[in-house]
Amino acid sequence: MYIRAANRVRISRSIFSTTFFIAFSLVSVNSLVPCPVDSSMANESQIPREVREEVAADKLNQQKADQQ
């Protein structure tokens, strides 16, 4: 019913080695292969200055209201 010590060590070493190899492989492949995200979905659009100023003013007004 019990696993012998030699087999237990071999199984543990195999599990840890396989896990390390898979993790290392995933990181290295991710560095080599570009991300397949559609560039149209990227959030790199420029926010108009008027909108930025309006949002900043709203945040400032909200902070002032919270302090009162």
Descriptive overview:
- The chain is an all-alpha fold.
- It has a domain at 1-33.
- 69% of the residues lie in helices and 0% in strands.
- The chain has two helices and no strands.
- The longest helix has 28 residues, at 5-32.
- The protein starts with a helix and ends with a helix.
> What is the structural class?
mainly alpha
The biggest beta sheet reads: none
Uncertain residue ranges = none
How would you state the average pLDDT, rounded? 84
| Total DSSP helices | 2
Rounded to the nearest angstrom, the distance between the terminal CA atoms is 71 Å
Instruction: Work out the number of β strands.
Output: 0
Question: What percent strand?
Answer: under 5%
Which value, in Å, is the CA radius of gyration? Answer: 27 Å
Spell out the helices and strands N to C. HH
Shape: elongated
Helix content: 55-70%
Short description:
The protein is built from two helices and no strands.
Keywords:
mainly alpha, 68 residues, 69% helix
Strand-helix topology:
Blueprint: H1 5-32, H2 49-67
